[in-house]
Amino acid sequence: MFCPRCGKPYPDDAGACASCGLAFSAAQSLPPKEEGDATGGIIPYKNAPALIAYYCGVFSIIPCFPIGIAAVVLGIKGLKRARENPAVRGQVHAWIGIIAGGLFGLLWAIVTVLVIIGISKGRFGG
Ligand SMILES: [Zn+2]
Fold first, then answer.
1. pTM of the model as a whole
2. How far is the CA of 36 from the centre of ligand 1 (A)?
3. Are residues 54 and 100 in the same domain?
4. How would DSSP label each residue in the chain?
């Protein structure tokens, strides 16, 4: 048998852990660890749209505005999912995706339009 608190082995007939002093009658009533607790709930593995939105938002810094649009769309999906089932988390990731994707998406859209106008006026490429 192993102590649930410190992980040290102990004899089956022991009343308390020799290393950390945890009483085993109390140990048996400890609540089970929440699934995915190792990440502290920081990364929303159960909310894929929010997670993808976050990465799309980050990569929307690259001058390619469809990534920003994808970040906004997925971010809204992730927010909906988090609202319907709060256990999946991911609201923060979804918002980062929406805000970053929206800002950079808009920025690159404007840049693209300006470049197209510039080309059509002959100021670029010659
Ligand atoms: Zn222990």
1. 0.58
2. 23
3. yes
4. -B-TTT--B--TT-SB-TTT--BHHHHTTSPPPPTTGGGTT-S-TT-HHHHHHHHHHHHTTSS-HHHHHHHHHHHHHHHHHHHH-GGG--HHHHHHHHHHHHHHHHHHHHHHHHHHHHHHTT-S--
